[in-house]
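Lab notebook page, bench 4
Experiment: in silico fold of construct C2
Operator: M.H.
Input chain length: 347 residues
Purpose: comparison with the prior construct
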Amino acid sequence: MKEKIKTIKENAIHEIETTEDLKIINDLRVKYLGKKGELTLILRGMGTFLPEERPIIGEAVNKAKEELELVIQKKEEELKKQELNKKLKEETIDITLPSSKIIRGSKHPVNRVIEEIEDLFVSMGYDVEVGPELETDEFCFERLNLPKGHPARDMQDSFYITNEYLLRTQTSSVQARTMVKNEEKTPIRMICAGKTYRREDDATHSHQFSQVEGLVIDYKENHVSLADLKGTLEIFVRKLIGENLKLRFRPSYFPFTEPSYEVDVTCFKCGGKGCPLCKQTGWIEILGAGIVHPNVLKINGYDPEKFGGFAFGTGLERLAMFKFGITDMRYLYTNDIRFLRQFDRKD
């Protein structure tokens, strides 16, 4: 039997060493070492041998199996190395060939404006805050001096999900959340940019649009006033749209500020002389602003006798149109690759 084992081992080694195919190597492993392999069958027939022969035969079979495993492993490594070298030789890349341009996406104009605004206000000491788009009636209206039944709610036709939850109609809700979150009731300088939603049915509005809003609250002795608001907005507008623009404040009404203002800038196209874009007035309305209403301070935990401040907000799509000279707001929503490709350039 020992001679038979030796013969099986020698035949197996010969077959393994002479083949050049990895698949055949695997077949030979099964043939000699598998569950029905030649050496395995000898071990299964150990019951037919004399008791004194069994240890000798078992040792010989196990030793032969170990030797064959080593031979197979060595041959597999050799063939894999040969295959790799062959691929490296046949599949070489000519790095001197000119590459084809990879078409990549670009930042959306609105996202570009958001990033520029955030960078500007962070450099002025503001924090960037975020809040949920699915908002409660409390933070969207009540904490902004708009209690249930207030007529100013009719100015914003809202998407209510339940009686309590709605898609936020303004990013002012983040201002309220920031004031409530600030349990120490210390001064605040923050901005928030994000999506807002209103039920708009006419051709000139969209049910979804973007806003950026800012809030400053400080101690009364620091005299945060309309002059500070005007100076802040001048820096904001001139850095974003044009250095030579002028601002004009017109009295208006917002429930969360008192006094409240609509803010116009000189037309960036005609320089204030009058043109079709500004309807010959020389001015373009750009944002709303005002001094924070005492009720808003009180509702959100601030003592209006000790604190004061200002707030402002504007639509990001309008800013993007002014900044990049976009003539139709619908371009910002249609995902037309011909339009978006214009912004595929290095900043």
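Observations: Residues 2-90 form one domain. The chain is about 40% helix and 20% strand.
Next step: discuss at group meeting.
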